[in-house]
Protein 1
Amino acid sequence: MKKLFIVAALAVVALVPAIAQADIVAAGNSVKIDDDGSANASFGGGPFQITNLSQPNAWLTFCIERGETFSYGQTLYVKKVNTEAVNGGIGGPSPDPLSYDSAFLYTQFRNNVAGFTNGVHIQYAIWRLEGELPNADFATLSGADQTAVNDLLTAATTAAWTNLGNVRTLNLYKDANYTQNAQDVLTMVPEPASMMLLGLGLVGAATAARR
């Protein structure tokens, strides 16, 4: 029986890298956003580094909507970890559901998958998918940028995701009363099943140790 628990615990440990990818953030937290150090996309986009001021954690993120504003280093407030942007930005409905293709691209970027590591191109592609980079603006990009973005869009279409996976939006506000919309950005949440298995595995390991 002891061996069985140990094997189960070891199997769960293998899930930890996927769980570690998840960001520590919740409604009611305060965060700040900074330039990640790379060249930002035209039209004021990401990638950005977001830092949770309530529960120390930081990750790379992207704007979902254009036309929403914030300042680097400004304290922003998380109203909800959501599946949609609260504002339609310059395109799309309001609220604006996050597309499955955007979730696919962000997941590949966060997992550092080859071909999905250029954050500027990921931002352009997400904006195209969310209706935030119309043809007139897209046409102002260089030919190389347009080709790279179109390749990403093709990859997302080919992947044909039918859900958001672990990707969610953070609805951010400039005030703690949530009256001044700031921006909607991306985050990764843990899989409920993985968290449950991790808990069971740790309990099993503790039981085995006691025995």
Protein 2
Amino acid sequence: MRKWLAGILYLLYKKKINRESARTDILLSVYGHSPTGESLEKLVIWLQGRGYEFVTPGQLQDYLNGTLGVEKPVWLSFDDGWEANYREVWPVLEKYRVPATFFISTKGIEDGYFWFTRARAARKADPSLSISEFWEMPNAQRVAAIEALPAYRGPRVSMTPRQLEEIARSPYVCLANHTDDHVICPNCTPQELEREIAVCGQKLEQWGGRACEKVFAYPNGEHAPQNEEILRELGFRMACTTEGKYVDKDTNPFRIPRMEIGNRASLPENILHIYGIWIPFFARIKRMLGVKRKKK
């Protein structure tokens, strides 16, 4: 059903897609979590066929400084450190020589799961458990609440340190900071956030064998002005959100937006995502349905 609907919407918005894909005044910033290799490969082929050139974090900074000599740049990144990044994503990067940035939450690499994986597993046993509350708690309270949950007994979902070391040797892979425990930055004290960033950086340098690029991704895309100040003080040059917009020359380097692709999305759906069509379309539908429900 979803693939069928994506195909219909692609045809309906084909003129807009053609117009947007011809633009040379923006940088296309695309990210995902654990897409399948087939899904990613189709998107890479489609983008390259339309003249896009994949760029590195350094080239992204050049773009923001107005010195990048690429007509249609696209920057690709992946968040957290999912096992599928090693098994599915990395082979596509190697095959097509596409650079990508991996924002890694290092505690999840060591544990084999992320704290929200443990919370979701606990909710299966206790449906009354509210996952949303964990995202809103002060960080210390969240840590204590997660530790009080039953131990995680599910399958490994993250890359292993050895897998991370292996992909880090690739000329197409850049490892970057996503905090150690995938914390929600505005919920941290300055000291907590500084420690999270420092520990993540130390582990990534150990596994990657070199200093990481000074680019950061806010976990869950959540950030506050004081978080930007901390990153600047720590020497970071850029930071990314999950806001679905294009990057242009006026973009704040500490609020770089990114368009999200799906884990198992079809090519038409991913195209609708990267040009900001899919989510707004369904947001309008939901608003329309909401109005109708209020009238009843």
Protein 3
Amino acid sequence: MIELTSSGLYCRAGDFYLDPWQPVERALITHAHSDHAHYGSKRYLTHPATAAIMRERLDEPYIETLDYGQPLSINGVQVSFHPAGHILGSAQIRLVHRGETWVFSGDYKTELDPTCAAFEPVPCDTFISESTFALPVYRWPAQAQVFADIHEWWRSNQADGQASLLMAYSLGKAQRLLAGLDNSIGPIFVHGAVEKINAVYRAHGVALPHYQTPSEAGRQQDFKNALILAPPGSAMTLWARRFAPFSDAFASGWMRLRGTRKRLGVDRGFVLSDHADWPGLLSAIEASGASNILVTHGYARTLAQRLREIGVAAEALDTRFEGEQDAAGEIEEAL
């Protein structure tokens, strides 16, 4: 039902694309990260929260929306969106045609997250899964422990008279971190790029603790007790100089590997990802009940091989999706 083309994954029966990486006539979008939501298509269909983020990021004029679980027939193909648990508005796309059901998962995670709807297994015949962290080494620690470690680091920095600069991707990860931070420890500040997305989250009912942007606080603000949440690479910018002295940290699934933390040169690394870890991927695939698995972006061949070893028909599908970017990703202009 879905084929790989030069523009992306294409459903010929419905005449639409799923997260295309080139402009097309009609695009169904799983979520608003830039490797899945590209500029320039004539028509988009996505979840209402994703549409709001896309309008903020891409200024796309024509976006139709579809709530979770709401069916829509497109040229005889029944389409519905279902929670992927990745970020606000993220969806798996279910396609039913001539008695066959396919699900394109986009990016997903199986951990609970107060800032987005929880992942829901969707029974299907063919399941298209990501594989960003599809190696056995990638097993996420309990979220409560991660936040306890962040709070301990923050308090330690306060005792040393320095600010805490915590770097995370501005869409999804930053809001998840904010929702879990204890603002009784000290003041919280966010980068302007984070605040733009926060506004969309708040508009969709996501509760976030009190914070300010540095510009709101003014130049006389003392940041030594503060935690500042900013995009990756911010520690290297002029924008960050106002917080000195500071300790910097990065929150990402890539922090599971000591070598990555060392290469980044950050003081601390916190293992927190908006993607499924190795056990999460295997459990999600099993829960789909699919007899055929297609694996995209990440360690696709590793996951496909593992699935074949346990008797599941699986193959890697080469796409241009990136999953969670590594150390070089998403350095944004300071606002």
Protein 4
Amino acid sequence: METWKGKLGLIVPSWNTVMEYEMQRMAAGAVSVHSMRIEHTADTEERLLWMGTQVPAAAKLLAHAKVGVICYGCTGGGFLKGAGYDQEICAGIKAATGIPGTTTIASVTEALRVFGVKRLSVASPYEPWLNERLRVYLQQSGFEVMAIEGLGTQAHSTITPEQVAALVAGVDRPESQAIFISCTNFRTLEIIESLERKLGKPVVTSNSASMWKMLRVIHDSRVIPGAGRLFREA
């Protein structure tokens, strides 16, 4: 007999080894996390756009598990074509399955708006071209990017939380109201709250925002220890 309070569906790039791990840690047995993978081994524009075309089919298979919400867990795959593309993906998930859909980047922007953020700093593992697409998306979505910096790598999951924390320290600006750490394949869960204490502002990550949004869709307003102010205040 099922004892958990809800079922969450994830669609992740096949090389991603961090998102499921962090989502399961945040779920802590209270909800179950079920995932589908889409082939992906390189962050090129062609491959990222191709993944988007595969989302409805992946969502249909997740629907067999009767999940309550489905999230496309590739941050770059949601912002690559600018503002509005993420909502097209959300609508495609709902049309294919009848299940509410979200994307990681849509979850992030919603979380930032809940905090009333207008100005932010961004840290990512991305190469410069992908960071520039992210900047454009955020600006189109009504945010002012005070600083954005990446590590210029596609080996996202190999970066340690300590390296991520150092990157965040480098992009923080006094005028930034929040920090956004982008990429679902980037380890951040261990450092969110320590960064918030140090910087005195919210830290929203791709994975924390994705979990927050999915839980809210299934009407679960739990606070997740260690996952930051987003769960306590939003």
